[in-house]
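Researcher: Let's try something more involved. This one mixes different molecule types, so please make sure each is placed in the same coordinate frame as the others.
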Amino acid sequence: MSSILPAMLTHLRITFFGVLAAVLLGLPTAAFLIRHERVRRTLFVIIDAIQTVPSLAMLTFVMLVFGLNDTTVIVAIFFYSLFPIIRNTYVGLTSVDKGTIRAGKGIGMTNLQIFSMIRFPLAVPMILTGIRLAVVSALGLATTGVFIGAGGLGMLIWRGIQTRNMRMMLSGAIPVSLLAILFEYAIGLIEKQLLKRQRRSNT
Amino acid sequence: MKKKNIVALLLMAVLVLSMLSGCGASNGITIGSKQFTESILLGEMYAQLIEAKTDIPVTRKLNLGGVSVCMPAMEKGEIDMYFEYTGTAYNEILDHTFQQGTTPEEVLKVCQEEMDREHEITMFDPLGLNNTYDVAIRADRARELGVSKISDLSAIAGDLNFGCGHSFYSRTHDGYSGMVETYGLNFKDTKLMDTSLLYESIETGALDVIIVFGTDSLLKKYDMILLEDDKAFFPPYHGAPMCRNETLIKYPELSEILNSLAGEIDNDTMQELNYQVDVENRAVEDVAKEFLTSRGFIPGNDGDKTILYTEPEVLDIALKDAGIQSNEASQVEVELKTQGSARVYEVEFNHGGNEYDYVIHAETGEILSKSCEKEG
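Model: All components are placed in one shared frame. Result:
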């Protein structure tokens, strides 16, 4: 029992930093892509390709640079999270109603103002969707971190399976599921609230 | 927007730096292992041996993801040593294809030479265990059918259901198709399933013959025997520690320690040790420590307090009690077991037509029970 809590905190820390790094890099990148169609096409092919790399291969590859520790898992999560975050942010930023943008231009807004006062706020729910997807899959990916010597709940799950120790296995699997459900629900709730507010201000 | 970008970049840099600073310089020796009990257990044993006999700081990176993680980690110096099998080194690391007829000694020789030459890694002498694929059958069924070798099966295979894991079935050289061809086996039915379900299927009677690994702890649990591979079809998977040459140069005292378990752990012993972890759910550290102390590799006492008596010590206790000189006793057997919550030694030996049987507490050395019967 005593080993679950520290493992859970490590698990959360790995997930958090991995997704955070992807958000910090992904949001500006997506904003940049709005006006650079050619770059967007190439980049989307790259992040799509990253997504298809099997997790153990990715971890082994990253391990060669960062070593057998939590950092490797964080970096792997960062790579996998780029896909949902950049794609969703891009869609969010570009699917803003053209009329709204034209109205902004009409009242003399600069490009920066259009971005920060129209595009970005209206895209926030989609950005959150991306983060939600990234977090939930990162929680799962972090369990395989055990194979490159990282901490987290993965150790309990894999050792439990190998030794047919159901209790050990569940003591790792249940917290992972609960965390995934919790984040899914909490971020989803914020998304809904934001969308509701947007709709209200539209009418 | 520009400002935001710069802030983001700065944050990233800080983040990356703070993460990198976490991993300090690697001093001492880092021991790796693959992600199954046997590998972890042996990694832990070498860790305890090194800790007991030297001052070298030991870091454990046990439970890594198989040879595809362990070898790159060795090459990069992320780990200094781990426990590998000759068959895996031969086939997967050195890229040879095992041909039937190659002896285990030849395989070992190739592994030791080429690991040293191509990877600057020393492969030590094997422990004695051979964790290869094996054909297993329930002990009572084997008696009933009168089989002890795989070739015994060829005449009766038509009445038997066979089961194996997917990886064995799809192996090109040493897998299912090669085996049935070599031994001329034509089973009634062949079922593929996850390896963890094979044993349960044996128990329910759905399968008669299955493919297992030679040191599986469940062989003991389900009272199964291995059929002799009389045509030497399966490649040898003799287990031995491997260590980076660089590490051995830095710590020359390691070589002797890494060699000390050579020839000391056969399949039965390994099965028993795996059993204690997998089935009895004992901690890996305890099982490793108990084995090393009982065999006298590390001291059994910590200051004044005796932790565990060694096998020679309990044998002495029993012989002294019976009033017999050690050279007069024959068929000596000493085995460490769990009785209730206590760890006990079962000591058996013969002398003057009598069969002696002692049970001795492993921690106190107290004789718990004894018997002496006429032989036969």
